[in-house]
Specification:
Chain B: Belongs to the sigma-70 factor family. ECF subfamily. The structure holds 2 protein chains of 2 kinds. Chain A is built from 12 helices and no strands. By secondary structure, chain A is an all-alpha fold. The longest helix of chain B has 25 residues. The chains are: A mainly alpha, B mainly alpha.
């Protein structure tokens, strides 16, 4: 029975390489001899196991390629990647710089301070005592001794409230010293008197108001300066542009 | 992500037959192009993403084997073929699921084509048993049988494993198969695996 066909011959049959006549004989035996049929079945099962093993190996390979593709897709669309971290850091740097730049530079007080330049001392020769006091004030002002300057200018204005030069310098000195609340009244008075300092006084008043967070009023005055076209119209226009800048709409800019 | 080469069916068949790096590129292309559709198909029909991945990988395996055997010659496009295999495999697996539990009852299956191969579902224990069995084979029998199972020709096997010719490779394959048959007969667990395969009707 079974011994009639060798392993190699059964292999030949299963591989489809057996000649027709021999195959007929083989199949006849297969249908009549149960022992032989079982032997062939076992042989066939080894083939099935080999197929299964090959399939498992190919599938493993396919799975590892699929995992690689997924990882690539994840890297390209989401998840953490070196590129993404680098981009985040770059964005953080930009936002950070923007934050510091705008929160510092577009801050109202900074805009006002930046626009501020001490009014130059235009007086050289003095005669009477009032003028001596005024001159001492100017000297202290030049030396940035604001306390002394304020004392002298206040003295002059107390003696003569129409002494607009002294009032003007008193206002500017208060502003220079950071005493913003005190700067407002002398500057307003100079503006009301329509003195030659009017445009400059408006300019310094607007800077003072900005320091006091009275932005709307400051802007109104700056617009006047621009319209009047006097000495401070150019810096007033520039300051208005900065005050209306989009950067100032950022939540962290006051 | 680097840009992948595009393939038509003919180029895919040729790349997969070449094996190695070219085959890997072609498989990567098929995964990128076709997996999304298959996931949709299976998830819509009550499957999970894990089911979709498993079925798709199984279908790609069948495609690769059929290309090697010459059973797939590009009568339809590779994409249509893959879709059909997946659909059929999912139908059969789903039927098995519903036999095991009524959880998924009510799924519409009338439109599914039964003329497609079945996924061989081996659990982890069966997989490890299979690998243990082949690991016991001596010399390079594991490789010989693997390549033979992958439908490489005897000439190709001789070339890959440095045998002097195809006849030597053929003799070697027969010896290895005998060895495997002997191991199978000795191992009752393997008998259990074979019984399970019979139930699965490969």
């Amino acid at each position: 029975m079974a011994q009639e066909y060798s392993f190699e011959e059964i292999e030949k049959y299963l591989s489809g390489d057996m000649e027709a006549g021999e195959k007929q004989h083989f199949e006849k035996l297969l249908s009549t001899d149960t022992g032989f049929a079982r032997q062939v079945k076992e042989h066939r099962q080894t083939h099935e196991l080999v197929d299964l093993y090959a399939r498992a190996n190919i599938k493993n390979r396919v799975k590892s390629i699929h995992d690689k593709v997924k990882a690539e897709q994840k890297a390209a669309t989401g998840g953490f990647s070196v590129m993404k971290i680098a981009a985040s850091l770059a964005l953080l740097a930009v936002v950070g710089s923007l934050y510091f730049y705008t929160s510092y530079n577009y801050n109202t007080q900074h805009l006002a301070s930046n626009a501020f330049e001490p009014y130059p001392n235009r007086f050289r020769t003095m005669g009477d005592s009032q003028e001596d006091t005024f001159a001492r004030g100017l000297k202290a002002y030049d030396l940035q001794d604001y306390k002394e300057a304020i004392t002298q200018f206040s003295q002059v204005t107390a003696d003569n409230e129409k002494y607009l030069d002294a009032r003007f310098y008193l206002g500017v000195t208060y502003l220079s010293a950071g005493a913003y609340a005190e700067a407002v009244s002398p500057l307003r008075l100079v503006i009301e008197e329509n003195s030659l300092y009017e445009s400059s006084a408006k300019w310094y008043l607007s800077l003072t108001l900005l320091q006091l967070d009275k932005e709307e009023e400051a802007k109104k005055i700056l617009q006047e300066i621009v319209q009047e076209g006097d000495v401070k119209s150019q810096p007033a226009r520039e300051l208005l542009e900065d005050l209306n800048s989009g950067f100032r709409k950022l939540p962290f800019v006051r | 992500m680097f840009k992948r080469k595009k393939y038509n069916t003919e180029a895919l068949i040729s790349a997969i037959k070449s094996g190695g790096r070219q085959e890997e590129e072609a498989i990567g292309f098929l995964i990128e192009k076709d997996y999304g559709k298959i996931e949709n198909l299976i998830v819509k029909r009550n499957g999970s993403v894990a089911d979709a991945e498993d079925i798709f990988q199984e279908a790609l395996t069948v495609l690769i084997l059929n290309i090697r055997k010459g059973a797939f010659k590009g009568e339809s496009t590779v994409h249509t073929y893959l879709y059909a295999i997946c659909k059929g495999m999912w139908y059969k697996r789903f039927k098995k699921y519903t036999r095991e539990s009524d959880h998924h009852a009510g799924m519409m299956v009338h439109d599914l084509d039964e003329e497609t191969p079945e996924a061989v579902m081996l659990d982890e224990e069966q997989k490890s048993l299979l690998h243990q069995l082949f690991d016991q084979l001596r010399e390079n029998c594991k490789e010989v049988l693997l390549y033979w199972g992958m439908s490489y020709s005897m000439t190709e096997i001789a070339d890959m494993l440095s045998f002097s010719n195809a006849q030597v490779a053929m003799n070697k394959k027969n010896k290895c198969l005998k060895q495997l048959k002997k191991l199978m007969g000795e191992d009752s667990k393997v008998q259990g695996l074979i019984m399970a395969l019979d139930v699965n009707e490969i």
